[in-house]
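Researcher: Good morning. I'm working through a list of sequences from a screen, and I'd like to move beyond sequence-only analysis. For each chain I'm collecting a predicted structure so we can compare shapes side by side. This is the next one on the list. No need for commentary yet; just the structure.
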Amino acid sequence: MMPRTPRPAGSKPAAPRAPRTRGRPTGEAPGLRPRLLDAALARYASQGIAATRLRDIARDAGATPALLHYYFGDGKHLLEAVIEERILPAIMPMRDAVAAAAAGDDITAAVAAFVNGMSDTIEKHPWVPALWVREVLSEGGALTSVLIDESGRPIVSLMASRFAAAQARGEVNAALDPRLLELSLVSLTFFPPAAAPLWRQLLDARGLGKEDVCRHTLELLQHGFRAEPRNGG
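Model: Good morning. Structure tokens for this chain:
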């Protein structure tokens, strides 16, 4: 056991250290919790959930790690809060709009609701494509199960069944597979906004906006790429 160093003569003993208090850390700013959620979502979309460090989220939000831990506890609970308060509220309105449009027999209205709904969702929430590619489509994605079960599977199954019913009524090309037709619908609505910087540059199409892309997609889906025969042709 090491001998204690004698205290200099006349010096006073050090004051006892104050016990650490529980509760809210100092330095909290108004609106910090929403900023932490937004900062986490931005990091998840740009670099992936597994690669995101809590201290980076705190710094992006102008907070300390202690404040982040005060609000969310750990990374698992932070992710759960981002899903419940940011991701699902962004996706569910589109899902509900498509479900409502697909409730009847008008397959054209259902397709238009899907195309326009996806376009509007991505315009309001630009992080959707990057996050979807990283955490849903990629193997081992952290959001695959929750987003497929919560939003993807119900809509895909509903639209595929509506395509099959329309095909049985003679409204859809009999040579098409309704399941693959739904895959084509997802691809045509999800890929263009996800890859917009690339294709706008490659095709010299920087002037094309959301309405142009939606109109093209609906025309392609509803009428195909073959020109209508001319009168007398």
